[in-house]
Design brief:
6-stranded mixed beta sheet; OB fold (Dihydrolipoamide Acetyltransferase, E2P); alpha+beta; 2 domains
Length: 316
């Protein structure tokens, strides 16, 4: 098990600060998701933690030892921390098999073959084992990058939007494997994403990164149920907005009940408009006055004339 401490970290490109005094501590075996929009510094943060970027300020400690940056060592990076980044970082003129085996040189031949077969099966690349990396599709290259990162069983994993080019079934299979691997060996991981739903699925804690600064550090349930702004709320799904008099009322499509209770207390009259089937649940569109809103339900709620909602209290 390994712990990570990021202390007052700043990184600049061309004298422009991309990360500004970022600090957090990650417990052993904890999975943290860095959530933010494009350009907010998420990928930069991961590369800095991996020891691949020069820091302008601050330090990073992994198991109480400093992670050196490229100005402090000949070969950038940390041997026990593996990064799956959006650039894939593959050896393009080597085959799939060779790309994976390059990470297994310290092991005997028997283990290399065993681990290779396991990773090829996991990522669905067995039929491409002799194909050069440069000839693979984007999704196949992403799967190979994941296989390489997992090959020598790292102590800590950094995931930079690692599943954005994978089909649904492959994504689910690889996600299950990585989660089981992390849980079995109590290994920590940091994932960056702009997808709040993915953050809710993965995180023990979520760090919201905005313009290079961490603006909130909390557990997924609190982020979803008690967002501080409309922008923050919309990271985690749709938000309805209704204006009644001078009051702006916000609520999620699932924050309603046909009867009043301790949680759902604000009454609204509704008029059914349409229904959209979305698999195990449906999205129902209603009018509240002249405003269209949406409710999610597994039951048929098209006959409702009144609902009770749980408001989200936002700063907006």
């Amino acid at each position: 098990m390994s712990s990570l401490v990021v202390n007052n970290l700043s990184v600049a490109y061309s004298e422009k600060n991309v990360l500004k005094n970022v600090s957090f501590t990650q417990l052993e075996g904890e999975v943290i998701v860095i959530l933010g929009a494009s350009g907010d510094g998420k990928s930069t943060l991961l590369k800095a933690i991996a020891g691949l970027l020069v820091r302008t300020e601050g330090e990073i400690l992994f198991d109480s030892e400093r992670v050196l940056d490229p100005s402090e060592q000949l070969v950038p990076g940390h041997s026990r921390i593996k990064l799956v980044n959006q650039d894939f970082n593959l050896d393009d003129f080597h085959t799939v098999e060779e790309n994976i085996k390059l990470r297994l040189l310290a092991y005997n031949q028997s283990y290399q073959e065993q681990r290779l077969k396991e990773l090829l099966r996991l990522t669905g690349l067995a039929t491409f084992r002799n194909q050069r990396a440069k000839d693979l599709s984007g999704g196949q290259r992403q799967r190979l990058a994941i296989a390489r990162a997992l090959a020598d069983e790292p102590d800590f994993i950094l995931l930079d939007e690692p599943f954005n080019q994978l089909d649904f079934q492959t994504k689910n299979r690889i996600e299950r494997h990585i989660k089981n691997y992390l849980k079995k060996y109590k290994i920590g991981a940091i994932m960056v994403t702009h997808n709040g739903v993915e953050a809710l699925e993965w995180a023990d804690r979520i760090l919201l990164l905005e313009k290079g600064k961490i603006t909130r550090d909390d557990v997924p349930e609190v982020f979803f149920n008690f967002p501080r702004s409309l922008k923050e709320a919309r990271f985690f799904g749709e938000v309805n907005k209704v204006i009644i008099g001078d009051e702006k009322i916000y609520f999620r499509p699932s924050f309603f009940s046909p009867i009043k209770d301790a949680v759902h207390a604000f009454k609204m009259d509704v008029q059914f408009v349409s229904k959209n089937h979305l698999g195990w649940y449906s999205a129902y569109r209603f009018k509240i006055g002249t405003t269209l809103v949406q409710f999610y339900s597994v039951n048929d709620i098209s006959s409702l004339k009144t609902v009770y909602i749980r408001k989200i209290m936002l700063n907006d």
